[in-house]
User: Fold this.
Amino acid sequence: MANANSTPVSNKSIEAQRLLTYSGHHGKSYSGTGPELVSAGLVKLEWLPGVNGNARTATRVGMIDGEMKLLPFGKMATSAQEEDGLIHIHRASKTKFHVSVRLKKEERQRQQEQWEREARMKEIEKAHKDRDDGIACIPADHKAYVEDQVRSLDCMMSVMRDKLTRGFGYSGGYYFSQEIVDEFDTVVERLTQLLQEGRVYFNKETRGREIAKIESKFRDKNPDFSAFMATTLAIGKAATLNNLE
Assistant:
């Protein structure tokens, strides 16, 4: 039974998080007073520098006979101890200490796998967005198609008109008369009207090929995920058919 002075594990975790100064692939670092570090369950009092004849500025704690113990001063840690979560404790001031905890090999592997999963999910999310954005660029209907063509025409003709009226680069002092510019505007207006009022045709096969091309790019970037989704959809379809029987 826990006594009145015991600290619940959850509180220790909160306290350790408060003292955390760095978290990386190989380990974590903490900073605090001796009592704070001990209360957070990060170190034992007898591990601290300057305590019970320990080295005054730094100590190391490693696995010895299946238990974390203070390593003898001046003795190098073994590779096994390095892999088993070696702890470095440095005195930062009269009251504060810095603690570096090397993650155990298994934990580093789990963390690496977690980071790789997260990175992969970000790649998949980006690929999904690229696919959705690509499909969104395909006009939904003939009205959207016409509007898109009119915007493209307006963009190109605006650039051309600026070239006629203001010029880009070196004009050599030459320019078109206002009559030419006005005629240009009339032609553009007529072209815009043609696009807005002209007959629009639709080819279902072309649309299908465009969508398939976008989907293909997504599958090429995410073969494993695409295979997983295909299997999942097949299982779902089979289950639906079974329910209908």
Notes: Residues 105-136 form the longest helix (32 residues).
